[in-house]
Amino acid sequence: SQNAVEAGGQILLNGNTYQVQYETTPDNTWKITNSSLLDLTVEKEVVGELGDRTKKFTIEISAQDSKGKPMNGTFSCEGAGNIKNIEFRNGKAEIELAHTEKITIKDLPYDSQITVTEKKADGYTVAYAINKGENQESATLSLTKDSEVKVINKKTDIPDTGIFHSSTGTGILVFIGILGIAFVGISVFRKRKGLR
Q1: Whole-angstrom Cα distance, residue 94 to residue 122?
Q2: What does the pLDDT look like over 24-38, one tens digit per residue?
Q3: Maximum separation of any 2 CA atoms in the chain, in Å
Q4: Could you tell me what percent of the chain has a pLDDT over 90?
Q5: How far lies 163's CA from each of 141, 158, 170, 175, 183, in Å?
Q6: What are phi and psi of 139, to 5 degrees?
Q7: Please, what sign has the CA dihedral across residues 16, 141, 129, 44?
Q8: Residue 170 three-state SS
Q9: pLDDT tens digits for 142-158?
Q10: Which of 110, 117, 182, 92 shows the shortest CA–CA distance to 147?
């Protein structure tokens, strides 16, 4: 016979991991609930020519259980660098990711309430895409399946150099420069001619 599983413990059935919960119903019968444990992947993407692909961005993950209680504990993870575990304290954990890096947090409880928020990075805007959906301003989800949040940054702080960045703008500047040189040349030529 197998040993009894404690409340909050895990069991493996048919290759899937479940969390076991017990509760007493109003008619004094026991209710045993096996909830599947799910994975959350957080991925970083930097877009635009000015974005730094080597920069590490700090991302906070907030997690509450299905009853709104802040999650605590250590969870195994896979992905960026040598990170093997992530710890939630009072429902919060932090990670750092650069362009194309991602991390998968394993075996989170079913129906966890997840919010992914990037800490402000000067000169960058941020958007979030949940499960390959449309970009949006925030990322909050109920974990009812393995899920992914992509955090997308775009560099917007362009130094005011007065130089156009498009090929058309560059062409206009070159043309204006040639006209200026021609004008100066003609003026000098006329002055010299007038002195004779």
Answers
A1: 19
A2: 778 878 777 777 789
A3: 118
A4: 54
A5: 43, 11, 7, 13, 22
A6: -135, 100
A7: negative
A8: helix
A9: 999 999 999 999 997 56
A10: 110
Contact 41, 57 (CB under 8 A): no
**Residues pairing with 74 in the sheet:** 87
Q: Residue 66's closest CA among 111, 123, 119, 105?
A: 111
Alpha-carbon distance of 122 to 133, in angstroms, equals 26
Residue 94 has pLDDT above 90, yes or no: yes
**What is this structure's pTM?**
0.68
Nearest to 105 by CA among 143, 68, 134: 143
Is residue 162 over pLDDT 70?
A: no
Q: Which two tokens stand for residue 75?
A: 């969870």
pLDDT in tens, 54-76: 999 999 999 999 889 999 999 99
User: Facing residues of 105 across strands?
Assistant: 40, 77
User: How crowded is residue 21: how many other Cβ atoms within 10 Å of its Cβ?
Assistant: 17
Distance of alpha carbon 174 from alpha carbon 176, whole angstroms: 5
The answer to whether the CB of 123 falls within 8 A of the CB of 155 is: yes
